[in-house]
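Fold this sequence, please.
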Amino acid sequence: HFKTVTDPKERYCRAVLLMIEKLAASRRFYNYREGEITPDRLRQHARTAAMLERIAETQKGDILVIPSQFGLRHRGRSVRRDRVVFGKNEFGHGALSVGSMLLTHPTRLARWEQLHIDCAGDEFAPEADGVFSRAPVFDFRDGKVKFDTHPVDCANDQYGASSGFLPQ
């Protein structure tokens, strides 16, 4: 996909938009950030980008297989705190990874009572001013999976950061 796009930040945003489109086609969905998934607002966190690059170097093909968890390990902590306490071989998943996981796990985020998901592997600048003070989230409300952002210093027991691990 997006072979004509040379800027990796633009390619990432386009991949997130494609994933959101596929997720919206698979279930009831609402995107609070419609029109805001652009390189000046959304980017991968540096640690996540570096870890994914290391994984990609060891795996052939277009699909990366990454040991992961959906958020329970970091339940109730802020994204800012999660990024501090991640293990040496652990990194936050971004919107693209979490959305892809949701596509392959259709029973995840199917009820309000399920743990909502912080995407600690991405950073979001709501004003497109270089201040990346938020992180994407996926939650389930009003019978829909919803995509939005929350402040990185906001801790909530109903949310947990999804993370991946370097394969051993």
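The first helix runs from residue 8 to 26. The radius of gyration is 15 Å.
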